[in-house]
Amino acid sequence: MDGAESVTSRAHAALGRLGFDLHRYPVRLEYLDGVLTMEGELPDIAAKKRALERGAALPEVRWVADRLRVEPSVGMSDAEVLDHLRDVLLSEPTFDECTVRLRRGGALDVFREPPRPRGALEVAVDEGVVRLEGAAPSLSHKRLAGVLCWWAPGTRDVVNALEVDAPEEDNDDEISDAVRIVLEKDPLLDASEIGVRTERSRVTLRGLVASEEQRRTAEHDAWYVFGVNDVNNEIEVSQDVASARWRAVAAS
User: Fold this and answer.
1) Range list for CATH 3.30.1340.30 in the chain
2) For residue 201, what are the contacts with CB-CB under 8 A and spacing of at least 6?
3) Does domain 3-70 have CATH number 3.30.420.270?
4) pTM of the model as a whole
5) What does the alpha-carbon distance between residue 247 and residue 128 come to, in Å, rounded to a whole number?
6) What confidence tens digit (pLDDT) does each residue in 2-26 have?
7) Which among 60, 151, 155, 247 counts the fewest CB atoms within 10 Å?
8) Start and end of every BON domain (predicted)?
């Protein structure tokens, strides 16, 4: 077994310990001169991020070429994903002062340009991969824009290349705040009893939700946030939460 084959063999073994079916979700691995290329479609964002971490952890690997995609929740054309993102970004109050542009092939369509813009979001989609370019007013704006792109049903990956207009120091508190904002904005999630703690870019989620689906949703939302390196999901499922929500709805 030569050096390259040894690296890809160990990488494949590491992926096999992540819990998803490598027969259903095969990953093509190639190693050359310190670069490990990982290509394939995985079941969710957690699988993608953990697969990249396992590949990067091999001592011979200096860089991982990320060609991993996430299985979309709904099949959509690039044009449909772009239209969805246009509507989402234009309706999100956080970006009311930002210019919003969409790139379709060689054409650049401007959908909003305030008199005194604070940031400019430029969005393009290629085979389900969303690319965000331009400038955001703050790190929290950049992070929220990236998550909104991940939430688009046909999205397979997001490349968040937004620059921050006023450079600011990133830290664990900034990441925790961003995760809380995202959890609270997710319409599929009741985040009222979820706590967030971040240490060295590793997020821990604790608290209670009404279902296993909401537990997974909260974890995926945390993974979507730019700068998060790991997510430890300690959220518990409680029928008491579900009962309390039903009583609140019935009383309203």
Assistant:
1) 3-70, 172-251
2) 172, 175, 227, 228, 229, 230
3) no
4) 0.91
5) 40
6) 689 999 999 999 999 998 999 999 9
7) 247
8) 171-239
